[in-house]
TrEMBL record:
Organism: Aphis craccivora
Name of the protein in question: Zinc finger MYM-type protein 1-like
Domain of life per record: Eukaryota
Length: 275
């Protein structure tokens, strides 16, 4: 058991996903947890025996057919997020792709990370640590979004500095591409839109994993979250605040705000109505 606990702690520390997309025995990638456990059992007879002879989930159900199986609501919440906005909404999809690319670009080099720290110190900003995007713990993306939102001006200045001073062609190319993506209206608006939304979700997600949580309270939390999200959709004041925050961010970075195109109403509609 201690061996499995050590694997769990290690994956949690490094922020790696536990589960794979396909965990059956024929799968080439069953997820980090199972892959590490199956690797260690080759060198550990105790772990090998436990994995071979230890009780499985289905065994308990066979022993007592009256066992009430309850899905993990926190995991279900993550699945809903992935299906609703993680894949189908291309703006959000591209947004998180940029967040992950930013993390890899800055944290992949000590020099680039030091540049960000230097810029933050110059503008008297308390820097939040950039976070990698988790592929399974979707609600935890709030930390990644919150860090970028807090560090936004420092990030722009740091990447511009890197772009101007680097002597490596691909670093300059990547930094220019990042600057373009980070300063688009879609990215900044998504940043302001997702921050309050993910804040609601991450709070509920944390509560759903409490040890003393019962089924009734978990259902009430889910209902409350659905109601809160529904209210956010119909709150005009919140939308105006998001838009104003986006415009303010544009102003601070000196980027020209794109003009909203007014669609022309076809004259054929009026003609057909007269006829």
């Amino acid at each position: 058991m201690q061996r499995l606990i050590d694997i769990t702690i290690r994956l949690a520390k490094t922020g790696e996903p536990f589960r794979g997309h396909n965990e059956n025995l024929k799968s080439d990638n069953r997820g980090m947890f199972l892959e590490l456990a199956w690797l260690l059992k080759k060198y550990d007879s105790t772990l090998k025996q436990h994995l071979a002879e230890g009780p499985k989930n289905e065994t308990y159900i066979k022993i007592n057919s009256k066992i009430f199986y309850v899905h993990c609501h926190a995991h279900c919440l993550n699945l809903v997020l992935v299906d609703s906005i993680g894949r189908k909404n291309r703006i959000v999809f591209d947004f998180f792709g940029t967040i992950q690319f930013l993390y890899s670009f800055i944290e992949g080099s000590y020099i680039r990370h030091a540049t960000l720290e230097k810029v933050a110190k110059e503008i008297n900003l308390t820097l939040k640590t950039l976070k990698s995007i988790s592929t399974t713990r979707w609600a935890c993306r709030f930390e990644a979004v919150a860090a970028v939102k807090n560090n936004y001006l420092a990030i722009i200045s740091a990447i511009q500095n890197i772009c101007d001073t680097t002597k490596i062609p691909d670093v300059r190319s990547k930094s220019r591409g990042l600057l373009m993506q980070l300063q688009t209206f879609e990215f900044i608006f998504a940043l302001n839109m997702l921050h309050p939304l993910l804040l609601l979700i991450v709070k509920v997600n944390s509560c759903l994993q409490a040890e003393d949580l019962d089924l009734l309270n978990s259902l009430n939390m889910i209902k409350s979250l659905k109601l809160s999200i529904s209210q956010l959709r119909s709150d005009d004041n919140l939308f105006k605040k998001m838009y104003n925050d986006t415009v303010e961010c544009y102003t601070e970075t000196g980027v020209i705000i794109p003009q909203v195109k007014i669609r022309k109403i076809s004259s054929k509609i009026d003609q057909s109505s007269e006829n």
